[in-house]
Amino acid sequence: MEDFMLLKNQLCFAVYETASEFNKLYSSTLQPYGLTYPQYLVLLALWEKDGVTVKEIGEKLRLGTGTLTPMLTRMEANGWIRKERSKTDERRVYIFLQKKALNEKKAITKTVSNEIQSCNIGLEEYKQLMERLNQLHRKLKERER
């Protein structure tokens, strides 16, 4: 292998560049809906399970409350979600999808799917990429500190 320390040989840089391209793809795809990529992730989480706490969303998306709270406030102002404080524990805030999020789900997911397909990634390749990225993620998390 060529010199390991060359930028073009760094796995971290390849991941960074790929993530940057994904961000561009999703930003342009979601822009007509007035959504950012992190907001889309919130919708994905809520489409899987509605009526969860802010803490649960943060854990699922690995986002802190400092990032999540203002984003949820904007999403609520734009009609995507509704926040509701728990009657039994004021510290808990539940997030519920609004009609807009339910009505737009099919259109958003179709648009995103079309963009991913435009990258010429077949289903089998997609599954393999997901498997390899999940393996890499696990290895990074499990490394000895």
Characterization of the model:
The protein has 145 residues and is mainly alpha-helical. The chain has a single domain, classed as Winged helix-like DNA-binding domain superfamily/Winged helix DNA-binding domain (Arc Repressor Mutant, subunit A), CATH 1.10.10. The protein is 63% helix and 8% strand. It has six helices and three strands, in the order ααβααββαα. It has helices spanning 11-30, 37-48, 54-61, 65-77, 99-117, 123-142, and strands spanning 52-53, 81-85, 93-97. Helix 1 (11-30) crosses helix 5 (99-117). The longest helix has 20 residues, at 11-30. The protein is globular, with a radius of gyration of 18 Å.
What topology emerges from the helices and strands here?
Elements: H1 11-30, H2 37-48, E1 52-53, H3 54-61, H4 65-77, E2 81-85, E3 93-97, H5 99-117, H6 123-142
Helix pairs in contact: 1-5
